[in-house]
Design goal:
The structure holds 2 protein chains of 2 kinds. Helices cover 40% and strands 17% of the residues of chain A. Chain A is α/β, with parallel strands linked by helices. Chain A folds into 2 domains: 3-25 and 294-402, Aspartate Aminotransferase, domain 1, CATH 3.90.1150; 38-291, Aspartate Aminotransferase, domain 2. In chain A, helix 3 packs across helix 10 (277-291) and helix 4 packs parallel to helix 5. Chain A is globular, with a radius of gyration of 22 Å. The two termini of chain A are 41 Å apart. Chain B has one domain (10-145): Sufe protein. Chain: A (Alpha-Beta Complex). Chain B has helices spanning 10-15, 20-29, 33-45, 88-99, 106-111, 114-120, 135-145; strands at 68-75, 78-85, 104-105. A 3-stranded antiparallel β-sheet of chain B has the order 1-2-3. In chain B, helix 3 packs across helix 4 and helix 4 packs parallel to helix 7. The longest helix of chain B is centred in the first third of the chain and has 13 residues, at 33-45. The relative contact order of chain B is 0.19. The interface between A and B is medium-sized, with 18 and 15 residues.
Protein backbone atom coordinates (compact mmCIF):
# COMPACT_ATOMS: atom_id res chain seq x y z
CA UNK A 1 0.00 0.00 0.00
CA UNK A 2 1.18 3.50 -0.84
CA UNK A 3 2.55 5.21 2.26
CA UNK A 4 0.74 8.47 1.64
CA UNK A 5 -2.54 6.62 1.40
CA UNK A 6 -1.62 4.85 4.62
CA UNK A 7 -0.92 8.17 6.35
CA UNK A 8 -4.44 9.34 5.68
CA UNK A 9 -5.64 6.61 8.01
CA UNK A 10 -3.80 8.22 10.93
CA UNK A 11 -5.78 11.32 11.94
CA UNK A 12 -3.19 12.60 14.45
CA UNK A 13 -0.55 12.94 11.72
CA UNK A 14 -2.55 15.58 9.90
CA UNK A 15 -1.91 18.43 12.30
CA UNK A 16 0.15 21.57 12.42
CA UNK A 17 2.27 22.69 15.36
CA UNK A 18 2.67 26.46 15.18
CA UNK A 19 3.88 27.16 11.66
CA UNK A 20 4.97 23.58 10.99
CA UNK A 21 3.12 20.41 10.06
CA UNK A 22 3.80 17.64 12.56
CA UNK A 23 6.81 15.49 11.74
CA UNK A 24 6.36 12.50 14.03
CA UNK A 25 9.55 10.54 14.58
CA UNK A 26 8.75 9.14 18.02
CA UNK A 27 6.97 5.94 17.08
CA UNK A 28 9.27 3.90 19.34
CA UNK A 29 7.77 5.76 22.31
CA UNK A 30 4.26 5.20 21.03
CA UNK A 31 2.87 4.74 17.57
CA UNK A 32 0.03 6.80 16.16
CA UNK A 33 -3.29 4.99 15.80
CA UNK A 34 -5.16 4.32 12.56
CA UNK A 35 -8.80 5.24 12.25
CA UNK A 36 -9.93 1.62 12.29
CA UNK A 37 -8.44 1.20 15.78
CA UNK A 38 -10.14 4.37 17.00
CA UNK A 39 -13.41 3.26 15.40
CA UNK A 40 -13.24 -0.19 17.00
CA UNK A 41 -12.77 1.31 20.48
CA UNK A 42 -15.55 3.80 19.85
CA UNK A 43 -17.86 1.08 18.58
CA UNK A 44 -17.17 -1.09 21.61
CA UNK A 45 -18.11 1.72 24.01
CA UNK A 46 -21.11 2.81 21.97
CA UNK A 47 -22.56 -0.61 21.15
CA UNK A 48 -21.03 -3.47 23.13
CA UNK A 49 -19.93 -2.02 26.44
CA UNK A 50 -20.35 -4.70 29.10
CA UNK A 51 -18.11 -6.67 31.41
CA UNK A 52 -16.69 -9.87 30.01
CA UNK A 53 -17.04 -13.46 31.25
CA UNK A 54 -20.30 -12.68 33.05
CA UNK A 55 -22.55 -13.40 30.15
CA UNK A 56 -25.93 -13.49 31.84
CA UNK A 57 -27.09 -11.04 29.19
CA UNK A 58 -26.64 -10.46 25.50
CA UNK A 59 -24.44 -7.40 25.76
CA UNK A 60 -21.93 -9.17 27.98
CA UNK A 61 -22.04 -12.18 25.71
CA UNK A 62 -21.18 -9.98 22.71
CA UNK A 63 -18.36 -8.23 24.57
CA UNK A 64 -16.95 -11.58 25.72
CA UNK A 65 -17.07 -13.09 22.22
CA UNK A 66 -15.25 -10.07 20.76
CA UNK A 67 -12.73 -9.98 23.60
CA UNK A 68 -11.93 -13.69 23.35
CA UNK A 69 -11.72 -13.47 19.56
CA UNK A 70 -8.75 -11.13 19.97
CA UNK A 71 -6.98 -13.84 21.97
CA UNK A 72 -7.19 -16.01 18.87
CA UNK A 73 -6.03 -13.11 16.69
CA UNK A 74 -2.98 -12.62 18.93
CA UNK A 75 -2.30 -16.36 18.96
CA UNK A 76 -2.23 -16.34 15.14
CA UNK A 77 -0.27 -13.08 15.02
CA UNK A 78 2.69 -14.46 16.99
CA UNK A 79 2.09 -18.13 16.15
CA UNK A 80 1.61 -19.29 19.73
CA UNK A 81 0.79 -22.96 20.24
CA UNK A 82 -2.55 -22.42 21.94
CA UNK A 83 -4.88 -19.59 22.88
CA UNK A 84 -4.42 -20.15 26.65
CA UNK A 85 -0.81 -19.05 26.22
CA UNK A 86 -1.96 -15.50 25.45
CA UNK A 87 -2.47 -13.40 28.58
CA UNK A 88 -3.90 -9.90 28.30
CA UNK A 89 -1.98 -7.40 30.43
CA UNK A 90 -1.90 -3.64 30.68
CA UNK A 91 1.44 -3.44 28.89
CA UNK A 92 4.95 -4.86 28.63
CA UNK A 93 6.03 -3.44 31.98
CA UNK A 94 3.17 -5.13 33.80
CA UNK A 95 3.82 -8.36 31.92
CA UNK A 96 7.49 -8.52 32.90
CA UNK A 97 6.56 -7.73 36.49
CA UNK A 98 4.01 -10.57 36.38
CA UNK A 99 6.72 -12.97 35.21
CA UNK A 100 9.36 -11.74 37.68
CA UNK A 101 6.91 -11.91 40.57
CA UNK A 102 5.48 -15.21 39.42
CA UNK A 103 8.90 -16.88 39.28
CA UNK A 104 9.85 -15.94 42.86
CA UNK A 105 9.20 -19.40 44.32
CA UNK A 106 11.26 -21.02 41.56
CA UNK A 107 14.43 -18.97 42.15
CA UNK A 108 17.00 -20.15 44.67
CA UNK A 109 19.36 -17.90 46.61
CA UNK A 110 22.59 -17.78 44.67
CA UNK A 111 20.82 -18.07 41.32
CA UNK A 112 22.00 -15.91 38.42
CA UNK A 113 19.76 -13.76 36.24
CA UNK A 114 21.38 -12.59 33.00
CA UNK A 115 20.06 -9.30 31.63
CA UNK A 116 20.83 -7.56 28.33
CA UNK A 117 22.90 -4.42 29.04
CA UNK A 118 20.75 -2.52 26.53
CA UNK A 119 17.51 -3.66 28.21
CA UNK A 120 14.79 -1.14 28.91
CA UNK A 121 14.41 -0.49 32.66
CA UNK A 122 11.15 -2.47 32.46
CA UNK A 123 13.24 -5.55 31.65
CA UNK A 124 15.84 -4.85 34.33
CA UNK A 125 14.29 -3.41 37.47
CA UNK A 126 11.75 -6.29 37.93
CA UNK A 127 14.74 -8.69 37.85
CA UNK A 128 16.59 -6.60 40.43
CA UNK A 129 13.50 -6.79 42.63
CA UNK A 130 13.29 -10.55 42.10
CA UNK A 131 16.96 -10.80 43.07
CA UNK A 132 16.28 -8.81 46.24
CA UNK A 133 13.42 -11.15 47.16
CA UNK A 134 15.32 -14.35 46.49
CA UNK A 135 19.02 -13.65 47.04
CA UNK A 136 19.73 -14.17 43.33
CA UNK A 137 22.23 -11.98 41.45
CA UNK A 138 21.55 -9.92 38.32
CA UNK A 139 24.47 -10.04 35.89
CA UNK A 140 24.62 -7.79 32.80
CA UNK A 141 25.28 -9.39 29.42
CA UNK A 142 27.92 -7.03 28.00
CA UNK A 143 27.83 -5.31 24.63
CA UNK A 144 30.67 -5.19 22.15
CA UNK A 145 32.06 -1.95 20.71
CA UNK A 146 29.29 -1.95 18.08
CA UNK A 147 26.55 -2.00 20.73
CA UNK A 148 25.66 -5.58 19.90
CA UNK A 149 25.56 -8.27 22.56
CA UNK A 150 29.03 -9.74 23.01
CA UNK A 151 28.18 -13.30 22.04
CA UNK A 152 31.44 -14.71 23.37
CA UNK A 153 30.82 -13.15 26.74
CA UNK A 154 27.23 -14.40 26.63
CA UNK A 155 28.36 -17.96 25.96
CA UNK A 156 30.74 -17.68 28.88
CA UNK A 157 28.07 -16.31 31.20
CA UNK A 158 25.82 -19.23 30.30
CA UNK A 159 28.43 -21.50 31.88
CA UNK A 160 27.22 -20.12 35.21
CA UNK A 161 23.90 -21.90 34.50
CA UNK A 162 21.69 -18.84 34.95
CA UNK A 163 18.14 -19.42 36.11
CA UNK A 164 16.78 -16.68 33.84
CA UNK A 165 17.99 -14.93 30.69
CA UNK A 166 16.18 -11.65 29.97
CA UNK A 167 16.73 -10.11 26.53
CA UNK A 168 15.31 -7.38 24.39
CA UNK A 169 14.34 -8.50 20.91
CA UNK A 170 15.07 -5.00 19.61
CA UNK A 171 16.80 -2.34 21.74
CA UNK A 172 14.40 0.53 22.35
CA UNK A 173 17.20 3.09 22.56
CA UNK A 174 19.31 2.02 19.58
CA UNK A 175 17.15 -0.15 17.35
CA UNK A 176 19.73 -2.97 17.36
CA UNK A 177 18.35 -6.47 16.92
CA UNK A 178 19.38 -9.41 19.06
CA UNK A 179 19.60 -12.90 17.50
CA UNK A 180 16.99 -14.08 20.00
CA UNK A 181 16.30 -17.47 18.42
CA UNK A 182 19.92 -18.52 18.69
CA UNK A 183 20.35 -16.94 22.13
CA UNK A 184 17.18 -18.54 23.49
CA UNK A 185 18.37 -21.95 22.26
CA UNK A 186 21.72 -21.48 24.01
CA UNK A 187 19.95 -20.42 27.20
CA UNK A 188 17.57 -23.35 27.00
CA UNK A 189 20.52 -25.72 26.61
CA UNK A 190 21.77 -24.70 30.06
CA UNK A 191 18.30 -24.85 31.59
CA UNK A 192 17.56 -21.13 31.81
CA UNK A 193 14.09 -19.63 31.53
CA UNK A 194 14.07 -17.14 28.66
CA UNK A 195 12.17 -13.87 28.75
CA UNK A 196 12.09 -11.61 25.71
CA UNK A 197 10.89 -8.02 25.67
CA UNK A 198 9.38 -7.66 22.22
CA UNK A 199 7.94 -4.16 22.67
CA UNK A 200 10.11 -2.63 19.94
CA UNK A 201 9.98 -5.61 17.61
CA UNK A 202 6.30 -6.39 17.37
CA UNK A 203 5.30 -3.59 14.98
CA UNK A 204 8.26 -4.06 12.67
CA UNK A 205 9.01 -7.78 12.44
CA UNK A 206 7.07 -10.97 11.99
CA UNK A 207 7.32 -12.56 15.41
CA UNK A 208 6.99 -16.34 15.70
CA UNK A 209 7.23 -17.36 19.35
CA UNK A 210 7.40 -21.06 18.53
CA UNK A 211 10.31 -20.48 16.16
CA UNK A 212 12.08 -18.35 18.80
CA UNK A 213 11.23 -21.06 21.33
CA UNK A 214 11.41 -18.69 24.31
CA UNK A 215 9.50 -19.24 27.54
CA UNK A 216 8.01 -15.76 27.71
CA UNK A 217 7.56 -13.00 25.12
CA UNK A 218 6.04 -9.63 25.93
CA UNK A 219 4.79 -6.61 24.04
CA UNK A 220 2.46 -3.62 24.25
CA UNK A 221 -0.50 -2.66 22.11
CA UNK A 222 0.40 1.01 21.87
CA UNK A 223 3.68 0.44 20.03
CA UNK A 224 1.91 -1.56 17.30
CA UNK A 225 -0.72 1.02 16.27
CA UNK A 226 -3.06 -0.08 19.05
CA UNK A 227 -4.20 1.72 22.19
CA UNK A 228 -2.30 2.31 25.43
CA UNK A 229 -3.18 0.26 28.49
CA UNK A 230 -3.12 -3.15 26.86
CA UNK A 231 -0.32 -5.63 26.32
CA UNK A 232 0.40 -9.29 25.84
CA UNK A 233 2.22 -11.78 27.98
CA UNK A 234 2.91 -14.87 25.93
CA UNK A 235 4.25 -17.86 27.82
CA UNK A 236 4.56 -21.55 27.21
CA UNK A 237 1.59 -23.16 28.90
CA UNK A 238 3.63 -25.08 31.48
CA UNK A 239 5.64 -21.97 32.35
CA UNK A 240 2.57 -19.75 32.69
CA UNK A 241 0.88 -22.39 34.79
CA UNK A 242 3.76 -22.38 37.26
CA UNK A 243 3.70 -18.59 37.77
CA UNK A 244 2.35 -17.35 41.07
CA UNK A 245 -0.26 -14.76 40.08
CA UNK A 246 0.84 -11.18 40.78
CA UNK A 247 -2.75 -10.04 40.92
CA UNK A 248 -5.45 -12.00 42.68
CA UNK A 249 -9.13 -11.30 42.99
CA UNK A 250 -12.09 -11.63 40.69
CA UNK A 251 -12.07 -13.66 37.47
CA UNK A 252 -8.92 -15.60 38.37
CA UNK A 253 -10.54 -17.91 40.93
CA UNK A 254 -12.38 -21.20 40.67
CA UNK A 255 -13.73 -21.27 44.21
CA UNK A 256 -13.32 -19.08 47.25
CA UNK A 257 -14.05 -19.71 50.91
CA UNK A 258 -12.67 -17.78 53.84
CA UNK A 259 -10.36 -20.72 54.48
CA UNK A 260 -8.91 -21.20 51.01
CA UNK A 261 -9.07 -20.15 47.37
CA UNK A 262 -8.62 -22.32 44.34
CA UNK A 263 -7.32 -20.54 41.28
CA UNK A 264 -8.92 -20.79 37.87
CA UNK A 265 -7.17 -22.35 34.89
CA UNK A 266 -5.24 -20.37 32.24
CA UNK A 267 -5.71 -17.83 30.85
CA UNK A 268 -8.11 -16.54 33.54
CA UNK A 269 -5.69 -17.52 36.29
CA UNK A 270 -3.44 -14.62 35.27
CA UNK A 271 -6.16 -12.11 34.38
CA UNK A 272 -7.51 -10.93 37.72
CA UNK A 273 -10.11 -8.18 37.76
CA UNK A 274 -11.89 -6.54 34.88
CA UNK A 275 -9.43 -6.60 31.99
CA UNK A 276 -8.73 -3.63 29.68
CA UNK A 277 -11.59 -4.67 27.42
CA UNK A 278 -11.65 -1.66 25.12
CA UNK A 279 -7.87 -1.89 24.86
CA UNK A 280 -8.10 -5.52 23.82
CA UNK A 281 -10.73 -4.64 21.22
CA UNK A 282 -8.46 -1.87 19.93
CA UNK A 283 -5.51 -4.28 19.86
CA UNK A 284 -7.59 -6.66 17.77
CA UNK A 285 -8.21 -3.85 15.28
CA UNK A 286 -4.49 -3.02 15.26
CA UNK A 287 -3.66 -6.63 14.40
CA UNK A 288 -6.18 -6.52 11.55
CA UNK A 289 -4.57 -3.28 10.38
CA UNK A 290 -1.10 -4.85 10.33
CA UNK A 291 -2.35 -8.07 8.76
CA UNK A 292 -3.89 -6.22 5.84
CA UNK A 293 -0.51 -4.73 4.98
CA UNK A 294 1.98 -6.49 2.77
CA UNK A 295 4.28 -7.36 5.68
CA UNK A 296 7.33 -8.24 3.60
CA UNK A 297 7.03 -4.97 1.68
CA UNK A 298 6.56 -3.06 4.95
CA UNK A 299 9.69 -4.57 6.50
CA UNK A 300 11.68 -3.80 3.36
CA UNK A 301 10.40 -0.23 3.15
CA UNK A 302 11.07 0.48 6.83
CA UNK A 303 14.56 -0.93 6.44
CA UNK A 304 15.23 1.32 3.43
CA UNK A 305 13.87 4.36 5.29
CA UNK A 306 16.02 3.67 8.32
CA UNK A 307 19.10 3.22 6.17
CA UNK A 308 18.29 6.50 4.40
CA UNK A 309 17.89 8.16 7.80
CA UNK A 310 21.23 6.81 9.05
CA UNK A 311 23.00 7.90 5.85
CA UNK A 312 21.55 11.40 5.82
CA UNK A 313 22.47 11.86 9.49
CA UNK A 314 26.04 10.79 8.86
CA UNK A 315 26.31 13.02 5.79
CA UNK A 316 25.32 15.99 7.95
CA UNK A 317 28.61 15.87 9.86
CA UNK A 318 29.16 16.51 13.59
CA UNK A 319 26.83 13.58 14.27
CA UNK A 320 27.62 10.54 16.37
CA UNK A 321 25.42 7.51 15.75
CA UNK A 322 25.18 4.81 18.41
CA UNK A 323 24.97 1.17 17.38
CA UNK A 324 23.76 1.98 13.87
CA UNK A 325 23.70 -1.12 11.67
CA UNK A 326 21.95 -1.81 8.41
CA UNK A 327 19.78 -4.49 10.03
CA UNK A 328 18.53 -2.20 12.82
CA UNK A 329 14.83 -1.86 13.40
CA UNK A 330 12.78 1.29 13.74
CA UNK A 331 15.14 3.70 15.47
CA UNK A 332 18.40 5.60 15.26
CA UNK A 333 20.20 7.09 18.26
CA UNK A 334 22.50 10.07 17.84
CA UNK A 335 24.07 13.13 19.35
CA UNK A 336 25.01 16.39 17.65
CA UNK A 337 28.66 17.25 18.42
CA UNK A 338 28.94 17.94 22.15
CA UNK A 339 25.52 19.53 22.34
CA UNK A 340 23.11 18.46 25.03
CA UNK A 341 20.45 16.13 23.64
CA UNK A 342 17.77 18.18 25.31
CA UNK A 343 18.84 21.38 23.55
CA UNK A 344 18.64 19.54 20.24
CA UNK A 345 15.19 18.21 21.16
CA UNK A 346 13.86 21.64 22.16
CA UNK A 347 15.02 23.17 18.87
CA UNK A 348 13.60 20.34 16.77
CA UNK A 349 10.32 20.71 18.61
CA UNK A 350 10.25 24.39 17.59
CA UNK A 351 10.00 23.08 14.02
CA UNK A 352 7.23 20.60 14.71
CA UNK A 353 9.62 17.65 14.76
CA UNK A 354 8.92 15.10 17.48
CA UNK A 355 11.87 12.97 18.59
CA UNK A 356 12.77 11.53 21.96
CA UNK A 357 15.70 12.97 23.89
CA UNK A 358 17.00 11.42 27.08
CA UNK A 359 18.27 8.17 28.52
CA UNK A 360 15.46 6.19 26.87
CA UNK A 361 14.82 4.18 30.04
CA UNK A 362 18.14 2.48 29.45
CA UNK A 363 20.54 4.17 31.89
CA UNK A 364 22.98 1.22 32.05
CA UNK A 365 23.25 1.39 28.25
CA UNK A 366 23.98 5.14 28.43
CA UNK A 367 26.62 4.40 31.09
CA UNK A 368 28.24 1.80 28.84
CA UNK A 369 28.28 4.34 25.99
CA UNK A 370 29.64 6.92 28.44
CA UNK A 371 26.94 9.46 27.56
CA UNK A 372 24.26 11.18 29.62
CA UNK A 373 21.69 10.63 26.95
CA UNK A 374 21.00 11.01 23.28
CA UNK A 375 18.32 11.81 20.74
CA UNK A 376 16.34 9.04 19.09
CA UNK A 377 14.42 9.33 15.86
CA UNK A 378 12.10 6.41 15.23
CA UNK A 379 9.89 5.43 12.34
CA UNK A 380 6.70 3.53 11.71
CA UNK A 381 4.58 2.26 8.89
CA UNK A 382 3.37 5.80 8.12
CA UNK A 383 6.79 7.46 8.02
CA UNK A 384 7.79 8.73 4.59
CA UNK A 385 10.88 10.16 2.94
CA UNK A 386 9.56 13.71 3.45
CA UNK A 387 9.56 13.10 7.22
CA UNK A 388 13.23 12.17 7.07
CA UNK A 389 14.05 15.16 4.85
CA UNK A 390 12.12 17.50 7.14
CA UNK A 391 14.00 16.11 10.12
CA UNK A 392 17.38 16.56 8.43
CA UNK A 393 16.50 20.12 7.39
CA UNK A 394 15.41 20.73 10.98
CA UNK A 395 18.72 19.43 12.26
CA UNK A 396 20.57 21.72 9.84
CA UNK A 397 18.76 24.66 11.43
CA UNK A 398 19.66 23.31 14.88
CA UNK A 399 23.29 23.04 13.83
CA UNK A 400 23.30 26.63 12.60
CA UNK A 401 22.00 27.78 15.96
CA UNK A 402 24.14 25.63 18.22
CA UNK A 403 27.46 25.14 16.44
CA UNK B 1 17.86 23.21 46.20
CA UNK B 2 20.64 24.32 48.50
CA UNK B 3 20.76 27.35 50.70
CA UNK B 4 23.84 29.53 50.43
CA UNK B 5 26.91 27.43 49.86
CA UNK B 6 30.01 28.12 51.92
CA UNK B 7 31.85 28.50 48.59
CA UNK B 8 29.63 31.29 47.35
CA UNK B 9 30.16 34.75 48.77
CA UNK B 10 27.50 37.46 49.00
CA UNK B 11 29.35 39.39 46.32
CA UNK B 12 29.01 36.52 43.90
CA UNK B 13 25.26 36.54 44.37
CA UNK B 14 24.87 40.28 43.94
CA UNK B 15 27.36 40.55 41.06
CA UNK B 16 24.82 39.28 38.55
CA UNK B 17 22.38 41.84 37.24
CA UNK B 18 19.67 41.70 34.60
CA UNK B 19 18.18 44.54 32.61
CA UNK B 20 14.68 43.13 32.28
CA UNK B 21 13.48 45.90 29.99
CA UNK B 22 16.30 45.37 27.52
CA UNK B 23 15.68 41.61 27.57
CA UNK B 24 11.97 42.01 26.98
CA UNK B 25 12.58 44.47 24.15
CA UNK B 26 14.99 42.11 22.45
CA UNK B 27 12.56 39.23 22.64
CA UNK B 28 9.78 41.39 21.24
CA UNK B 29 12.00 42.31 18.31
CA UNK B 30 12.84 38.67 17.56
CA UNK B 31 11.28 37.86 14.21
CA UNK B 32 11.21 34.08 14.54
CA UNK B 33 11.98 31.17 16.84
CA UNK B 34 15.60 31.07 15.70
CA UNK B 35 16.19 34.62 16.89
CA UNK B 36 14.36 33.99 20.16
CA UNK B 37 16.48 30.95 20.91
CA UNK B 38 19.64 32.81 19.93
CA UNK B 39 18.70 35.44 22.52
CA UNK B 40 18.01 32.69 25.07
CA UNK B 41 21.46 31.21 24.57
CA UNK B 42 23.15 34.63 24.72
CA UNK B 43 21.37 35.31 27.98
CA UNK B 44 22.41 31.90 29.30
CA UNK B 45 26.02 32.85 28.68
CA UNK B 46 25.68 35.73 31.15
CA UNK B 47 25.20 33.22 33.97
CA UNK B 48 28.41 31.90 35.54
CA UNK B 49 29.50 28.34 34.91
CA UNK B 50 29.46 26.57 38.23
CA UNK B 51 32.52 24.74 39.36
CA UNK B 52 32.17 20.94 39.64
CA UNK B 53 32.45 21.41 43.39
CA UNK B 54 29.15 23.29 43.27
CA UNK B 55 27.43 21.02 40.78
CA UNK B 56 26.31 18.80 43.63
CA UNK B 57 23.20 16.77 44.18
CA UNK B 58 21.91 18.92 47.04
CA UNK B 59 21.73 21.91 44.70
CA UNK B 60 20.16 19.98 41.85
CA UNK B 61 16.61 20.77 40.77
CA UNK B 62 14.59 17.62 40.09
CA UNK B 63 12.40 17.22 37.07
CA UNK B 64 14.94 18.22 34.44
CA UNK B 65 16.16 15.90 31.69
CA UNK B 66 19.30 18.04 31.79
CA UNK B 67 21.07 18.80 35.04
CA UNK B 68 20.28 22.12 36.70
CA UNK B 69 21.67 23.55 39.91
CA UNK B 70 20.26 26.43 41.90
CA UNK B 71 21.66 28.41 44.83
CA UNK B 72 19.82 31.09 46.72
CA UNK B 73 20.77 33.85 49.14
CA UNK B 74 18.66 36.42 50.92
CA UNK B 75 20.49 39.70 51.36
CA UNK B 76 18.80 42.75 52.92
CA UNK B 77 15.34 41.26 52.31
CA UNK B 78 16.06 40.70 48.64
CA UNK B 79 16.53 37.34 46.93
CA UNK B 80 19.52 36.43 44.81
CA UNK B 81 20.18 33.30 42.82
CA UNK B 82 23.06 31.52 41.17
CA UNK B 83 22.10 28.82 38.72
CA UNK B 84 23.62 26.66 36.04
CA UNK B 85 22.67 23.86 33.69
CA UNK B 86 24.60 21.49 31.45
CA UNK B 87 22.16 22.26 28.62
CA UNK B 88 22.60 25.63 26.96
CA UNK B 89 18.98 26.38 26.17
CA UNK B 90 17.84 25.29 29.59
CA UNK B 91 20.48 27.58 31.05
CA UNK B 92 19.14 30.45 28.97
CA UNK B 93 15.60 29.71 30.07
CA UNK B 94 16.81 29.75 33.69
CA UNK B 95 18.39 33.14 33.03
CA UNK B 96 15.00 34.37 31.83
CA UNK B 97 13.45 33.16 35.08
CA UNK B 98 16.16 34.91 37.06
CA UNK B 99 15.72 38.13 35.06
CA UNK B 100 12.25 38.35 36.61
CA UNK B 101 13.20 37.31 40.14
CA UNK B 102 16.88 37.96 40.90
CA UNK B 103 17.30 40.85 43.34
CA UNK B 104 13.56 41.07 43.97
CA UNK B 105 11.62 41.05 47.23
CA UNK B 106 9.55 38.13 48.53
CA UNK B 107 6.37 40.02 47.67
CA UNK B 108 7.50 40.78 44.13
CA UNK B 109 8.49 37.15 43.47
CA UNK B 110 5.28 35.80 45.00
CA UNK B 111 3.24 38.14 42.80
CA UNK B 112 5.04 37.22 39.58
CA UNK B 113 2.93 35.27 37.08
CA UNK B 114 5.69 33.30 35.40
CA UNK B 115 3.40 31.82 32.76
CA UNK B 116 2.25 35.27 31.70
CA UNK B 117 5.89 36.40 31.65
CA UNK B 118 6.89 33.57 29.30
CA UNK B 119 3.85 34.25 27.12
CA UNK B 120 5.02 37.84 26.84
CA UNK B 121 8.45 36.63 25.74
CA UNK B 122 6.82 34.53 23.03
CA UNK B 123 7.75 31.28 24.76
CA UNK B 124 4.33 29.91 25.58
CA UNK B 125 4.37 26.29 26.62
CA UNK B 126 8.02 25.99 27.66
CA UNK B 127 7.10 26.37 31.31
CA UNK B 128 4.43 23.72 31.38
CA UNK B 129 4.84 21.02 34.02
CA UNK B 130 4.57 18.45 31.21
CA UNK B 131 7.85 19.60 29.69
CA UNK B 132 11.02 17.74 30.57
CA UNK B 133 13.10 20.93 30.45
CA UNK B 134 12.50 21.31 34.18
CA UNK B 135 11.56 24.97 34.00
CA UNK B 136 8.41 24.35 35.98
CA UNK B 137 10.47 22.70 38.73
CA UNK B 138 12.97 25.56 38.58
CA UNK B 139 10.27 28.20 38.78
CA UNK B 140 8.76 26.36 41.73
CA UNK B 141 12.18 26.17 43.44
CA UNK B 142 12.88 29.87 42.81
CA UNK B 143 9.51 30.83 44.27
CA UNK B 144 9.84 28.43 47.21
CA UNK B 145 13.22 29.91 48.18
CA UNK B 146 11.74 33.40 48.27
CA UNK B 147 8.71 32.50 50.39
CA UNK B 148 8.13 34.68 53.42
CA UNK B 149 8.77 32.34 56.36
Amino acid sequence: MDVNHLREQFPALAQTLGDYPLCYLDTAATSQKPKQVLDAINHYYQQDNANVHRAAHQLSSRATVNYEAVRDDVRDFINAGQREEIIFTHGTTEGINMVAHGLTAQIDPGATILVDTAAHHANLVPWQMLALRTGATVVPIPLDSHCRIDQQAYAQLLQQHPAIVALSHVSNALGTVNPVTQMAAQAKAVGAITVIDGAQAIAHLTVDVQAIDCDFYLFSGHKMYGPTGVGILYGKYAQLDRLTPLLTGGEMIKSVTFEATEFNILPNRLEAGTPPISGVIGLGAAIKFINQLDKAAMVKRENELLTYLQQRLLALGDITLYGAHDDNIGAVAFNLADEHHQDVGILLDQQGIAVRCGHHCAMPLMQSLNIKGCCRASIGVYTNVEDIDRFIDGLISVKELLL
Amino acid sequence: MNSTSQFLSRDLFTAQTFDSEVILARFKQAANWQERYREIMLLGKTLPKLDDMLRVEQAQVRGCESNAWLYHAQIDDLHYYIADSDARIVKGLIALLLAATHGHSSESIAALDINAYFDELGLTGQLSPSRTNGLFALATAIKAAAKIP
